[in-house]
Amino acid sequence: MKTIKYTIIALSIMLVFTRCELFDPAMLNQQPPMDITEEKIFSDYNLFKQYSDQAYSYIPGHLARMWSVMVPNFGDEMRTMTGGYPFNTGGWNGSNALVAPEIATIWTNSYAGIRKCNQILERIDQVPIPTTALKNRHIGEALFIRAFLYHELTKRWGDVPYIDYTQNPQVDDIDIARTPYDTIVARQVADLDRISAENLLLVDLPDQDNGRASIGAARALKSRILLYAARPLHNPTNDIKKWEAAANAAFEVINMNKYALYSDYKNLFFQTTCSEIIMNRPRKSFNSEGGHNDFLTSSGGKSLWARFFASEGFGGWQGLAVTQNCVDRFEDANGFPLADSLLSRSVDPTKAYNSKDPYTNRDPRFKASILYNGRTFANRTLDYTIPYPGQAGVNGADRGVKLVNLFSYNLAKYWPESMAGRWSGTSTYLNYIFFRYGEILLNYAEAQNEVGGPESSVAGGPSVRQVLTELRARVGQPEIPVQISGDKNTMRERIWNEFAVELCFEEHWWYDVLSWKAGERFFNTMIYRTDVYKKITGSNVTLIYNTKIPFEQAVFKPYMHLYPIPDNEIFKSKNLINNPGW
Amino acid sequence: MKNIKFISIILIGLFCIVDMFAAAPKTVQVAGKVLDEKGNPLSGITVSLQEKSIQAKTNAEGLFEINATNNDILIINEAGYFVVAEKVANSLTPVLKLFKMKYKEDKILNWGFGNTYERATSSSISQIDEATITSNSVTSLEQAMNGTLSGLYSTKNGGEKFGVRNFNFLIRGMATTANSAPIIIIDNMESALDMIDFNEIANVTVLKDASALAIYGMRGANGAILISTKHGSELTHGFEINVSSGVQSAVKIADRLNSAQYTTLYNEALVNDGSAAIYDPIKYDGTQSAYLFPDNDLKQKFISNVAPYQYYNLKAHGGNAIAQYFVSAAYLNQNGLFANNAGYDGNFQNSRLDKFNFRSNVDVNINKTLRCSISIGALIDQNSSANYGSDALTNNNSLLNYIVNQPANASPLLNENGSLGGTAQYKVNPVGVFFKTGVRSDERRMLNSKVSATQDLSFLLKGLSAEVFYGFETYNKQYLTISNQYAVFKQNTDNTYTQFGIDDTKLLRSSGLIGDFSKYTQWGGRLDYKKQWNNNTLKLLYMFNQSIESVAGDTPDYVYLGQSVRGEFGFQNKLFVDATVTNQGSNNYNKGKRMGWFYAAGASYIITENSQNALSYLKTRANYGLLGNDQTGGSRFAYRQTWSYGASGSGYAFGSPNAWAGGTFSNALGNAGATWEKSQKLNVGVDVEFFNKLSLSVDYFKEHRTDILVPASYFPSFMGIDMQPVNQGIVDNNGIELIANYKTTIGKLQVNVGGNMTYAVNKIIDLKELDFQYPWQFRKGNSIDTRFGYETNGIYATSADLTNAPVSSFGIPTIGDLNYVNQNAADDNVIDDRDKIALGNSLPRIIFGFNAGIKYGGFDLNAQLEGASKFSVLVIPSTFSTFTYSNRWNPALGQTNFPRVSIASDYNTQTSNFWQQDANFLSVSALELGYTIPTSIIQKIKLNQVRFYLKGNNLYTFSNIREGRDSEALSAGFSQYPLLKSFVAGLSVKF
Known about the structure:
- The structure holds two protein chains of two kinds.
- Chain A is mostly helical.
- Chain A has helices spanning 2-19, 38-41, 45-53, 86-89, 104-123, 132-157, 181-197, 215-230, 240-254, 300-309, 324-327, 341-347, 364-369, 437-452, 464-473, 488-502, 509-515, 519-523, 567-572; strands at 78-80, 277-281, 320-322, 370-371, 376-377, 380-381, 385-387, 410-411, 432-436, 526-537, 540-553.
- Chain A has a three-stranded mixed β-sheet, with no helix packed on it. Chain A has a two-stranded antiparallel sheet with strand order 1-3. Chain A has a two-stranded antiparallel ribbon with strand order 2-9.
- In chain A, α6 (132-157) packs antiparallel against α7 (181-197), α7 packs antiparallel against α8 and α14 packs antiparallel against α16.
- The longest helix of chain A has 26 residues, at 132-157.
- Chain B is mainly β.
- Chain B is built from ten helices and 52 strands.
- Chain B has a 22-stranded antiparallel barrel. Chain B has a five-stranded mixed β-sheet with strand order 10-15-16-13-14.
- In chain B, a hairpin with a 2-residue loop joins β27 (536-551) and β28.
- The longest helix of chain B has 21 residues, at 2-22.
- Classes of the chains: A mainly alpha, B mainly beta.
- Chains A and B meet through α1, α3, α5 and α19 of A and β26, β27, β28, β32 and β33 of B.
């Protein structure tokens, strides 16, 4: 009897286990909840707005996006203390991990943003958007960002696959060839013109929308796109019509009469908004040790700011320095390049360049952009000296003892004086500027000079010389001497130099030189650095400058004007042919 | 001393208990005889009393005498014979007849299906038992598994390092690019190895082939390690006390550079990098002030040669016909190798590990047909160290790294005025670290419990029984930090001091739970049917089980459920066939793809056995089946596309000043067909025995693994969206396994010698790689563990060598740099990823183990060796090491075999064949010498067995790795806590 009783108990236990929900195949249906689905995004305006706003983040808009180097390191403006960066040695290619942030990442990110814009444009009619104005804005932003991202692609690779629909790998042909450069430009211009024609974006942004695209930004982008299209790399026959289109596009922005040069060049970069900024990427304010950390997922910005910019004298790692090649492009106070110092001296010897005292009598933008020996910065006189050979002594604090700064120059442009050292300081804004009026003036000058020379202008516009004078007058630099800018060709030289000086370290120079097809001239060259000797004779201290010490032979081959498509992408697609030489 | 006192109290207490038993009334002396089935007397047979610890042995005439009371039950439980149990009756002389088992003396295997006879399986199985486990383990069970379990490869990287128990197991090599780790199952529940005390374990079994693994379904393909804890038995009974104590010392700790050497090397590196030298090495010759020019040997000052170790374990087991029990409690204490050898005052904070293990397994026969078991296992362990980092275990690595690699001239330990020395660059002072930073301690707690009930259903159908079980395990980890700060001072030339940091001895406490929290629940049941007729056997089994694991920060739970059916048929006890079908599912997959079918079938045939010929036993076996591995390395629920709401950085900000605008973006497109890896396994084997003494097993295995998760690399990036990885990789793995054992008795001398060897090689058939430019870039055709890197061609010795030397993506070479071979020299003059070729393999192709034991009288000696061969390691000496100092490129010193030193450049430290070395090794992993006091003496003090032993672990390794590094733990002793060798003396007492 007892046995049967226990058996019944045991069997019922088994029954409980097997029949009740403890052993329940439905448990396998568990999966994490999904707050966001594609259907929700396109049926809930709040979600859609977040989806749409995030598209801006695919535009390269961060000085520290490559962690320890900056775009100026690619060319001849800056170097790391150790040199040997693949972009400088000729060692870069489509599979090199060190250059991947500029090649593979840009390729992938741009297309990710483009996909998003395509999807927004395709599905926007399903979204319950409160007002027509907002709907227009979302369409305008998607068109603008797509055009911007295609420019980021074409300025690096030339022809790239132009995709304006959401690709579905199951249905669509995903092995497509590259679209010709001119076709892409036409599509970009059509999209940007549509923004203007249909007033999809605002001209004047309310304060809380600072950072969004505007009509002005769309026109500025168009100006840049058409200028690149007219330059030698993509205009081998020198088709003047392209230059005309570029000049007109720049004039469109000037003619809005909305933008003007900001009087304080040095502090322009720390303004949240100002008359000159056409579009920027708003950032939170930060202090020097905090760096860009507040608005970047990685700690890249933080290190770039606090450690790489700062010299040892400010407690930094001085990882990045400015080259002598860059310093030499800053004219003297007469407006002459250093090579023309004899000519300059004949104009006004007190304002000419003096190689024994190389930092006086220079374009004011030199002091605004670069830290050098003897300059006062943050209540300190910078000391980059080293003992004269044979004399006892120690290196100056900024030249460094442990981390010797071989170049004797550091970056000042993005470092306000109020921020004392690496460890402390007040806070500031450092918004990333996409377009500013100064660039538009240069775009106009370059294009119009090719159309009609230094004194020409588009109908109703200022002459080439006038806009350049306006730009230089802002910092107190005299106009370009006519002796060295009398015709189209000599003026072109000065305009290129003006691009180099006005926009130095602003991620322009490398791409400008590439599009001028002038890489071999500027980048296949010796990179120089400077030693400042402190010679002590009795109680006299003399500083001796040696500004022509070779640092590194930079290598640039003709095929490098266009980037290699990442190897992995080439391996994936039969129809995707790489640029020649790679 | 305290511990000894404690042990004595326990011992005295136990004696009292034993005395109580002994003082039971009406004791009579029983004399009896033991005969074999033909009536011949048997000598040396142990006769014991049920529920008591009284034993006797038969003499040459088969006679024995034992003190017993009426109704005591005499038990003989001798291997190879059926168990005998007979009640003592007054004035009778019991004659006990032993019946030999009809077949070859057979091992009972405990595995996933329950117990089975080894002869009846088609599988290749390795098992170690209590004796091997206890004789090879000092601190952990893993030590006993090295080299003793055929087919199991256990890299001991970190394994025998203090506090860090991080063995990695592989069974028969690797067959996937994803996770190759086997599942570890303790008493039918998934668990972790390092949570259990080795004295709790009855046996460890490694399952390797399809037939043995089929019930594990999608989790079985990598093999399984089964651990069974001990249970009580009505047949034996007793208490056991194990006490061991000893010392541990480092196998290897790197030598340090002195100040003169360090500064010389540093200057040279600076000059090589194009900077100016900054040190004056001559000043460190001892003639200058030691405060301004310090030369600290931190290794000598803060590392001890020996660290004490102690271990206590108490076990009790026994039972009667109604209930059986096994209980065990263990305490382990290990001290770190850090020590204050410099005589500084204060509280020195050494590292320390305290570990408590507890287990209770109770089985109760509620009636003749229903049996219940309740098992509980628990662990509390505590690791503590100087508060130098974020986690007590990794702190040990950081501390050792600091001691080995801190420059000798960094700062004086103490300044002239007695304050701690330091500089702006070196604000860490070793005296500060060990005396003034406070303490970090981490505690882990684990509780594991299981109940089960087995019902005999013979009244319904003879041979039918059912079992249900429910078990859970919870685990968490918490920390306590007591932190202080200290200031260091730099003595200036004018005898003033500059202070860095502040002194703060507030004993700031913080504590909390570390993210490691998990809960695991499993339940299931089974129905067994057994039938025997005319030497034929039929076994049928149905099992089901479900498990749910909750992991901190991971939603939802991991859910598995499955059912299996297995049938085994034995014909004439010679031919055996088995078949298993499993249907198992996981919640990780798409609807309709969550359940999978797995199966295996096997057969074995015993051709010869118990033969008097040289060939005394011969068995052949084979099995084949399909298994799965769901540890594919992909993200969970990969079948869906998900969207993310912007974490910082992926959104955008507008406004002036800006306001955060959240950003939503899509993640990778889902892989709708995401599934587990499929593994087809074939195993063919032969077991042979010669002269009943030498046994040999040979197995050939072959595995074909498909559906390995690989990146969906063929989708171009211009699609603008990532794809979840796809199940399209294929890898083959095959090899041979050999086991040999020899056992003999010559008079009083018993000898056993054994060895095992596994040869396994895997080959990538397809990983859906990109269509690379050059054939050497493909992993296809190589092994999973193939190392890719640059080929070198010596060192650039002259400027002529540098003419047209290729530049590289990591720098431009100069004299004294490695000459990397430009594989695609026809296409470019650049060294980059496209020039990397297959260099060697990092996983041993061959692993082997040897064991030998001799027993003579009361003495026993056991040795265990393990080794591996046919693999290589990458050894890159650090820039500031004694090796670099005496070998770096410096033609002036006649040193031209190694590259130049540099601080800034990593040109020479790329993965290349220059730094690759063959890594064969043979290691003496355990050695034990024991002495057992003769029974005749100890029985007088009412003990059953007293054994003393000396044991050594990880004693010596034969290998040729540069700098004397260990090929399995390259950083041990260099930048991580060293491997340890242990010397232990112990005492084991059984009542």
